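User: Fold this; tokens only.

Assistant: Input:
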Amino acid sequence: MPTPPVGFEFHSKFSQVNEQYGQICKAIRKKLTEYPEVDTWYLKLLMVLATEILSNCRELSKAHTEDTISRGAWATRNLLELQVWGRYVLRSMEDARRFYEDAICDVDTLLKSFEKSSGLAADDAKQAIQRSREMLNPDTWDLLEQVTQEDTYLSVAKIAQDLGDGAGFGVLNRFLSKLVHPTSFYLQSRLNKYTTENWFAALFDVAAGLMDAALPTLLAKLRELTETS
């Protein structure tokens, strides 16, 4: 029996879930047309997570075609974080809302770091900071349900630990970092085509497991939301 090509299991899983998601998206578009007044923040949050997971799966496949390990490792590392966020937002509506509002924390934390080094910022950068700061006016904060001005952005590593997978997340994150960055380990791996294929085989195996960790449940929840009025 011939040996399956590198990434065979990964590509088989991806084809199945990608087709399922396409069908779900059609149902979602129909629902939004029929019920335009529905508050869709939760639906859209799950959609963007599913879309990003599938997008990074495509990125990994393209990286293999172009023989770029670092690109494939970046995609796999993104999948590692995305499956944590997917499991987190599916845990409860409160967690989903906290992640949804975390975008404000991301921006606010970034602006605060810019403000600390404002002497190094160019005038146009300062103007950009000011415009962004105006977006975070008191009215914006008053609309938030889970986040206050004292909160900082969520740590994906801490969330992974809270979900019971802190050790596994840390090991995979360190492994993928060695391939993402131009380390001596990564650069010398590029010298051997056989080694490169072995790394891609490992990335595909990891990515297949990461897909299974959150995507099927995300798709099931999206399907459920489209079937309820």
